[in-house]
Amino acid sequence: MQLETYISDLLYRYDCVTVPGFGAFLTNRVSAKVHESTHTFYPPKKILSFNEQLHNNDGLLANYIAEIEKIPYGTATDKISKQVKSIKSYLVEGETIQFENIGELILNADGKILFDPANQINYLTDAFGLSHFTSSNVKREVYKETVSAVEATTPIAFTPEKRSNNNWLKYAATAVILLGLSGFGAASYYNNTIENHNQLAQEQANEQLDAKVQEATFVISNPLPAATLSIDKQSGNYHIVAGAFRVESNSDKKVSQLKAKGYKARKIGTNRYGLHEVVYASFENRADAQRELYKIRSEHNRDAWLLIKKLD
Predict the structure, then answer these.
(1) Residue 7 is inside which H or E element, if any?
(2) Per residue of the chain (312 residues), what is the pLDDT tens digit?
(3) Euclidean distance between CA atoms 116 and 86, whole angstroms
(4) Residue 121: phi, psi to the nearest 5?
(5) What SS3 class is residue 150?
(6) Do 165 and 67 contact (CB within 8 A), yes or no?
(7) What b/e sequence results for 41-74 when a residue is b if at least 16 CB atoms lie within 10 Å of its CB, and e otherwise?
(8) 310: exposed, middle or buried (C-beta count within 10 Å: 0-12, 13-18, 19+)?
(9) Positive or negative, the Cα torsion across 213, 217, 219, 225?
(10) Cα(270)–Cα(279) distance, integer angstroms
(11) Cα 122-126-129 angle, rounded to 5 deg
(12) Could you give the CA distance from residue 34 to residue 76 in angstroms, rounded to a whole number?
């Protein structure tokens, strides 16, 4: 049993994952930050820690293993207990325990477990797809020197009075700002106008369609046979995940259950852990996906989450 795989899966959704009889892995959200010397921007993330004192069984890990492996809860608890005994024996012998995507565990001279978290993975789903980047330092003095060099070679004569009066620079900067603000306002107004126009046109088209349907109801004497409609295949890179399953037949069952509830559920393949992922639906843009995610969390599944992934 790959215990670290199950712990890693749960850390995406929960802030505390307890391994009964061993300890708890905790996550703490930290905000985005900028390194002052390297000018590197880091996205928000969850940092990992380990607390040896929190070792009482809360049922989370055992229930998850029982669900994934389709075994009784008691059997899952026994498997965890055997794995913990093995881990502790290795630690006592002075070995380092490596949990993939989680970190390293080692026993110190006082018999306490030391934890060194891994940094290659971010368990904060809100920051999915974000990575750190470095920006070059802005050196304004360079531009001042460049302006001075241009002025020295320009054929226009600058008198001392004009050189000492920088009001024209202030006026120019103010004009640029005003033009930028007016352009932004005009663009916003244009976009809002287009959106209102499209909405109005859609409402008018719907009214015309309703009128034609009512007219056709009275004119056509013989009912037409039922038409077979083909549903377009879902597309988009924003997916609301319902769950991931080790056994593919369980993922098929989940898709059927969600479709029975009216969702456009489907499978989108396997993740890096070999689990079959099932989604409620897929969307072209993030805003629509986020709205549907809030609705699903409040009405059906509070553990649903948004996956941004380009499908082949």
Answers:
(1) helix 3-11
(2) 588 888 888 988 898 999 999 999 998 887 777 766 676 766 777 888 999 888 888 889 989 989 988 999 999 999 999 989 989 888 888 889 888 888 899 988 888 899 989 877 777 766 555 665 676 666 655 556 665 666 566 555 544 544 445 565 666 666 666 666 666 665 565 556 555 555 555 555 545 545 544 444 434 445 545 545 445 567 788 999 998 898 999 999 999 999 999 999 999 988 888 899 999 999 999 999 899 999 999 888 888 888 888 887
(3) 20
(4) -135, 145
(5) helix
(6) no
(7) ebbebbebebeeebeeeeebbbebbbebeeeeee
(8) exposed
(9) positive
(10) 12
(11) 60
(12) 43
Nearest to 79 by CA among 2, 18, 26: 2
Domains and CATH numbers, the chain: 3-133 (no CATH), 238-308 (3.30.70)
Kindly state the tokens that stand for 57.
Answer: 């069984």
Q: What is the DSSP letter of 126?
A: G
Q: List 103's β-bridge partners, or say none.
A: 99, 117
- Give me the torsion for CA of 66, 68, 71, 73, rounded to 10°: 0
Residue 28 backbone phi and psi in degrees, to 5? -135, 125
Query: Which residue is listed with tokens 């989108």?
Result: 268
d(CA 299, CA 290): 14
Which helix (H) or strand (E) element contains residue 154? none
Residues 139, 45 contacting (CB under 8 angstroms) = no
Residue 258 token pair: 């969600």
CA distance 10 to 244: 11
Q: Supply the pTM of this predicted model.
A: 0.40
